[in-house]
Each structure stands twice: as structure tokens, then as C-alpha cells.
Amino acid sequence: MLAAIPLIIFVTFITKAMLVLSPGNYLDELRGNPRIHPDYIAQMEQKYHLDSKNVFERYWYWVWPAARGDFGESYMKAAPVTSLIGERVFNTVLLTGSALIFSWAFAIPLGVLAAVYRNRWVDKLCGFVSFFGLSIPSVFFSLLMVLFAAKTKLFPVDNVHNQVRWHLMGTGEKIINTLHHLVLPTIVLGTIGLAQYMRQMRSEMIETLSQDYIRTARAKGLSRWRVIYGHAIPNAINPLITLFGFSLAFLLAGALLVEFVFSWPGLGTLIFESLRDKDEPLVMAAVTVLVLMLVIGSLIADLLLALVDPRIRME
């Protein structure tokens, strides 16, 4: 975890530099309002240190309180950033977690079938699904799903919290409604992970099935599928757990765009909104949380690998 600190500093510094050096800031819109006195704007500039273009100075003013858990106050919403970002983090974790479950639930059995029935129609069908998932842009796929939902009326495409009845719903109805909104974004985002995991699982299974211990198990009279489930899959799945840490970065990056298209109230929409409004505290907090999520995901992958592989535990 300590090794992640330089990564967090680097990413947040680059983000702050881009915000500082980009033209304009949050107060530019206020300057065009004749009802706002120039003294108030000058006071706001001094309060938020927007009058300085020194990247290092601006970064220091942000990072020192942030290191103590104080991410400041949102310019637009005039509320603490931590209170605004909490629910968004949960929604992004919910979407990413659902996509991971979706991709693993389909990738492992499909990868096994593709390897067992290599070069047959099952393998070719899985290859097409993998090619589709890797080649289609997530934004384009999202737009196709939105069009599908609009035409069929089977799934909602509006913001889950912007409905008139949301505040009148009970807890159970809110959960069902949220899951209904979650279906299409999960399919879009999960297809990306599905393609990666399925290709990896097929490759690992083909290699594992050619090992001597698999032939020995078959020679001892064990059935084909017992050997596959008892010996081949547990060994072939280890590289997928390692891949989990790397694929999480792609899933989070994809989630930012998918959230925007489907109006899912997660970190992605928050970042787009805060960039549009030049709300620096919100942008910086959201980026920091995303980096922390990547670090935690990588740590979880290491722990899972140690859990399923005794060799890693011994090391």
C-alpha cells in the first residue's frame, strides 16, 4: 500500500496541473453577472487560491488538507466534497462489481467450453463473442443499448434518482428500481471484461489440458469432466485472478463513459459535471478516489491469488 502513495501523488499532481493551466476557472461565469460585486469575486479568488497560476502552490494548498481527509468544499454546491462523493462512490462500485460478476459468471464456463471443444462451433461462437466485446467501443455499445431500451420500453434510460416517485418509494421498491436501471450498464461494461477473461480462460485451459498430470488423472479412470472441474479449472483460473487487478483499471475507465451515457449517478457523471463547472475540489476528490479504488482492486487480486494458490501463501 505504501508503494501506492507516489502513484496517488503523481496522478493528483498531473490532474491539478491540467486544471490550473487550463484557461478559465469557476469564477469566470460569475464575472459576467452584473449583480455580483467584484469585491465578492476577489474574496472568493483569495479564499480558494484561484488568483494563483503556480501549479506547485495550488497543489500544496489542496494536498495538505486532503492528506488529513479534508477535500474542501464544492464551488457549485457549497457543500463538503466528502458528503457529495460518498453516494457516487457506492454507485460506481455497484456498477463495476455487477460488471465483474457478470463477466466472470459467463467468461469462465464459456472459456472452458471453448477449450474443451476446441475448433468446433462452440469455440467459434465464443471467439465471435470475444472479438465483439474487444472491438466494439463502449460508448457506441451504450448508445445501441439506449436505443434498444427506448424502442422496446423494457429498460429505463433516465437517471435512477431523478424520477418523480423516487422519494415516495419504499426500500424494497428502490432496490428493484435501481437493479432495473443497472441491467443495461452492467451488460455493456461486463461485455468488455467478459471478452478479456474468456480469451484468457480458453488459452489457460488449452495449456492446462495438455499437462502430464491431466493425462495421469484420466489414466486413473477419472471421468473427463471430473478431471476438468477438479484439476484443470483450479489451475487455469489463477492467471485470471492476476488479470483482475489490471482489468479493473479498464473497467473503471469504461464505467466513466458508460455512466455518462446511461445517466448513472456515479463518479463518471460527477467528474463530467465538475469538469463542466470547473469545480476543482470535486474533480480532485473524484480522481483521488478512483486511484484508491485501483490500488484496492490490485490488493484484492493479490489476496485472492494467495487464497487459491498455496504456493503464493508460502512465499
Task: Give a written overview of the molecule.
The chain has helices at 4-21, 27-31, 38-48, 55-66, 81-116, 121-135, 138-152, 171-209, 212-219, 224-236, 238-262, 267-276, 280-308, 310-314. It is mostly helical and 315 residues long. It has two domains: 4-66, no CATH class; 87-314, MetI-like fold (Orthogonal Bundle). The longest helix has 39 residues, at 171-209. The relative contact order is 0.14.
Main attributes?
2 domains; 14 helices; mainly alpha; MetI-like fold
CATH superfamily of the largest domain: MetI-like
Number of helices: 14
| Name of the top-level CATH class of the largest domain | Mainly Alpha
Major beta sheet summary:
none
Give the distance, in angstroms, between the N- and C-terminal Cα atoms. Answer: 18 Å
Count of domain modules: 2
Q: Which class of secondary structure composition applies to the elements?
A: mainly alpha
One letter per element, helices H and strands E, the order comes to HHHHHHHHHHHHHH
Proportion of residues in β-strands: under 5%
Mean of all residue-level pLDDT scores: 82
Poorly predicted runs are none
The CATH architecture assignment of the largest domain turns out to be: Orthogonal Bundle
Helix coverage percent: over 70%
Rounded radius of gyration (Å): 24 Å
Give the beta-strand count. Answer: 0
Shape: elongated
CATH topology category name of the largest domain: MetI-like fold
